[in-house]
Every structure is written in structure tokens, then in C-alpha cells.
Amino acid sequence: MIESRLKTEGKVTQKRNLTPSTSKHDPLLRPLLFIVAIGVLAAGIAWPRLFSKENVQTDVLSVPGMKDDVAVRIATNAALHQITGILEDDHAILHGCEISLSRRVVTYHEGRRLRQTDYRTRIQAAIQEEGYASQIVALHHNPLPPVIVPDRVYPSPWQDRHTAILFIPDMTGIQDANRVADAIAFARAGGDIVEVVPDSTARTIELTYDRFKLTRRNLEAAIAGVGVGTEPQNYPTGSENAVARGWRSLQEGFPFALFLCQLF
Fold first, then answer.
1. Three-state DSSP class for 236?
2. Which tens digits make up the pLDDT trace of 214-238?
3. Roughly what angle, to the nearest 10 degrees, separates helices 69-80 and 216-224?
4. How many C-alpha atoms does 258 have within 13 Å on its Cβ side?
5. Cβ atoms of residues 212 and 219 within 8 Å
6. Contacts of 95 (CB under 8 A, 6+ apart)
7. pLDDT tens digits, residue range 137-163?
8. How far apart are CA 251 and CA 81, in angstroms?
9. Is the Cβ–Cβ distance between 122 and 206 less than 8 Å?
10. By the 8 A CB rule, do 157 and 143 touch?
11. From residue 131, how far is each of 65, 149, 187, 257 by CA, in Å?
12. Rounded-to-integer distance, Cα 209 and Cα 216, Å
């Protein structure tokens, strides 16, 4: 009787001694379980978009202004800029574009590739294909300045930024600027993409895009904003009301570019 009681008390003591040894892992175990739970939740949200074809939309837009090869290129570049330029994900190339209509100047920023002569020539050829002559008047390594916050200085967020200054004498309005920005996007993408298929005979353009990122109206507005498409209802984007797309006014840019523009 006494022996069995001692054995029982020994087991209880042993169990009680085990409890503290496992509790010391709780500070690590709980954050780990939290991270796993967040990962499972994120995967559950992303799975339908990543692995389902339901997000792929194909539309055929009427583009009555596609009357010649130049107009076809203008419409195609506008659609391309929407699909792979403004909303870049898979085709992401860090870039920026500022335009001064009063000085007819474009400041275009990209990485080290902008130093390559053949790439700059490709940009000018794309602009020329839309009917605009251009001249590169300056090219500089132009990193963003360091970020300064109270008690701390962070390094430049874009150390490898290069800036090309282009003078485009016939760029006088927002519609022209949109066309130039679209042409640069075409050069940046390296050519036409399979998601944009124009039909010059029917004056239509077939577009395949991610409906979670774009809408038909976005694409209609982009093509109308360069003067060759049909404006969406209650969304005027013609030459007099064109909205700037893919670029910003040079007045919002950096002092270096503003200084160079004084040359003109």
C-alpha cells in the first residue's frame, strides 16, 4: 500500500516537473504559430488570383481613329502602356517621367540601361514612329537624394538612377505628352506584346488584361486620351480634356531638371 502510494506520488511529481520544461518554449512557439496562420491566410487570398484564369479578361475595342500606320502605333502604345507600363508588376522596370509642355521637354529616368546608346536610339525611334522628332540634350547619373528624418539619414532609395533630357519641338499639349510617354513605354517593354492585337482593317484592338488591375473603361480612356479612340460615356478624354497618364508635370520634379530646362 505504502509502496504503491510512493509510486503514484512519484509519477505525479514527474509530470509536474515536465510542465515547466515545455513552457519555456512558449515565447518562440506562439509567434511561429502566428506567422504560419498569417501565411495560410495570405495563401488563401492569393490563390484564386494567382492560379485561376478567371482574372484574365479579353475585350475588343472599337478604335475609329486607326486610319493609318501611325494611328495604329499610337493606339497600340497607349494600350501597352496601360497593361505593362503604368500598372507594372510582371514587367516591372523602375522608371519615372516628367514633362514640361511650356519648354517641350521630357525628363526620363531609368537605371543603368539608359547609358546604352542603342537603348536611347530605340527610345527616339519609338517617339519618331508616333510622328514626333526628338533630341537628347543631356544624360546624367542622377541618384535620388538620401532620405533625412529626425535623428537618422537613410541612403538614396534609387542610387542607380540615370536621367535623359529630351527636347521634342512638336509636343505642345497633354495629348502629345501622353503619346510620347506611351512611346517610351513601348521602347521600355522592348516591343509589342501578345496582350495587344490591333486590326487596322476593322479598326479594332483586342486586349487581354488582368481585370483585378484594369477595366475596359481604363483602356478606352487611355486610347481616347491620345486622340484615336472613342471616349467612355461621361469621361471626356479628347485633345482638349486629355488627362495626363504615366507622367507628371516637370514643375513637380527635381531642381536639376528644372535647371537644365532653362537652356530652352
1. coil
2. 889 889 989 988 989 876 665 555 5
3. 140
4. 7
5. no
6. 108, 109, 110, 188
7. 999 999 999 988 888 988 989 999 999
8. 23
9. no
10. no
11. 15, 45, 15, 25
12. 9
Helix axes 174-189, 117-129, angle to 10 degrees: 140
Q: Would strands 248-249 and 96-100 be described as parallel, antiparallel, or unpaired?
A: parallel
pLDDT-derived band at 43, boundaries 50, 70, 90: low
Name residue, grid cell 537628347: 136
Give the pTM.
0.74
Give the three-class secondary structure for 133: coil
* Predicted local confidence at residue 254, as pLDDT: 47
DSSP-based three-state secondary structure for 99 = strand
Under DSSP, is residue 80 helix (H, G, I), strand (E, B) or coil?
A: helix
Of the listed ranges 32-46, 48-62, 119-133, the one predicted with least confidence:
32-46
Judge whether 168 and 142 are in contact, CB under 8 Å.
no
Is the separation of the CB atoms in 212 and 64 below 8 Å? no
CB-CB contact of 220 with 243 (8 Å)? no
Contact (Cβ atoms closer than 8 angstroms) between residue 54 and residue 48: yes
What totals of helices (H) and strands (E) does the chain contain, helices first? Answer: 7, 10
